Amino acid sequence: MSITCRPISAEEHLGFIDQRGSASFLQTPAWARVKSEWRGKSVGFFDGDQLTGVGLVLYRQLPKLKRYLAYLPEGPVLDWSRSDLGEHLSALVAHAKKRRAFAVRIGPAIVQRRWSPATIKAAIADESITRLSEMTPDETVLVATRARNELIHAGWVTDETGHGFAAGQPMFNFQLPLRHPDGTQKSEDELLKGMNQLWRRNIKKATKEGVTVRTGTRAELADFHRIYLETAERDGFTGRSLGYFEKMWDELNAERPDRMKLYLSEHEGDLVAATTMVQVGEHAWYSYGASTNAKREVRGSNAIQWQMIRDANAAGCAVYDLRGITEGVGADDPEIGLIQFKVGTGGEAVAYLGEWDYAINKPLHFAFNLYLKRR
Predict the structure, then answer these.
(1) In whole angstroms, what is the distance from residue 86 CA to residue 72 CA?
(2) Which of 203, 250, 297, 342 is deepest in the core (most CB within 10 A)?
(3) Where along the sequence do coiled-coil regions lie (predicted)?
(4) Domain, as residue range, for 13
(5) Are residues 10 and 88 in the same domain?
(6) 5-28, pLDDT tens digit by residue?
């Protein structure tokens, strides 16, 4: 086997990502420092002396045993169309095995299926369809399908029964393309025209009401966090600590200035919405959002999204990523409001390949999955 996998420096890791154009922020060296409860290591794939891919491996130890899950969230970062893909995956497993991993988990950040706004709306309107995957996608990407077949052939397994928010990184995401098929950047007018009537009306209303949007400082993360906890209580999820967001800010921005930004949407001196955005190369993510229970009628959330989209576009990004959605499109689905909000931007739903496990020690891997399900 000519492909090898070995540790590399953070500088080599970042250099490969910069040369490639972008990668998930979960695959940057800085993310290892954000997730300090895991042991993070940068690895490189080599064909002889040529660096062909990189990855951030997060090692999580099993309770009471010196055995580890080797996890690459939305990684590794490589060309998934390579003819020697199988050799890259085998090299990763061999590298992890030497470091006492009982299993390797990867999450290829490669789009396999796409659904346009019209197709999503048709799926929501059709009472016989309850999941997006039941609707024929507008595009199925051959490279991703081949990669999936390669994973299956090599003995990797995935759980396709429940790709919601609980199963690691979400399989289904929502993205707004910021470029034309020929690679030229879209204009702000084109992006606005791509939105549905409700979004355009809400953006216009926010402007009329006097809503302003600005970028904030690290000190103002506390203001974001205050309404983030308000959002968590309203929407029924467990919020993260202020310290987590401060750590994210410190580590991501130490790696690249302005990698993480804070946006604040205000009306007559009151904070009505706040968000964080992360950018790696030509990919920008809306990572966290919050809004108050008060003054929802001034449409601060629409205003803040529009500002982030414009800023990502002005920075030359190819994609504005609104991150995870669940694939439920039934009228009674608890998350239907989320996809309806996001589809209004004129973007598309995409399905990645999902997360895949390779069991090095099958009994330990089985016990680990059982532990996760019980927890």
Answers:
(1) 17
(2) 342
(3) none
(4) 3-107+355-374
(5) yes
(6) 999 999 999 999 999 999 999 999
Can you tell me whether residue 15 is helix, strand or coil? helix
Q: How far apart are CA 365 and CA 375, in angstroms?
A: 15
Q: Is 117 in contact with 138 (CB distance < 8 Å)?
A: no
For residues 11 and 315, give the distance between their C-alpha atoms in angstroms, rounded to a whole number: 23
CATH number, domain of 295, equals 3.40.630.30
250 and 360 belong to one structural domain: no
Short-list 45, 82, 68, 72, CA closest to 356: 72
Tens digits of per-residue pLDDT, 25-74? 999 999 999 999 999 999 999 999 999 999 999 999 988 889 999 999 99
- Does residue 237 lie in a domain region? yes
Q: Is residue 248 part of a domain?
A: yes
Given a contact cutoff of 8 angstroms between Cβ atoms, the answer to whether 52 and 19 are in contact is: no
User: What is the token pair recorded at 77?
Assistant: 């970062």
Provide the sign of the torsion angle of the four alpha carbons 194, 195, 197, 202, taken in this order.
negative
- Nearest-angstrom CA–CA distance, 272 and 291: 6
pLDDT given for residue 166 in this prediction: 44
Question: What tokens were used for 148?
Answer: 């999936």
Contact 27, 41 (CB under 8 A): no
* Domain end point (choices 271, 298, 317): 317
Question: 53 CB contacts (<8 Å, ≥6 apart)?
Answer: 16, 44, 45, 76, 77, 78, 79, 88
In contact, 111 and 321? CB cutoff 8 Å: no
313 and 359 share a domain?
no
**Domain shared by 183 and 311, yes or no:** yes
Distance of alpha carbon 268 from alpha carbon 252, whole angstroms: 32
Sites in the chain below the pLDDT cut of 50: 163-167
Q: Which of 4-7's residues contact partners 24+ apart within 8 Å by CB, and which partners?
A: 4/45, 4/46, 4/91, 5/43, 5/44, 5/45, 5/46, 5/88, 5/91, 5/92, 5/94, 5/95, 6/43, 6/44, 6/46, 6/95, 7/41, 7/42, 7/43, 7/44
**For residues 345 and 192, what is the distance between their CA atoms, to the nearest angstrom?**
8
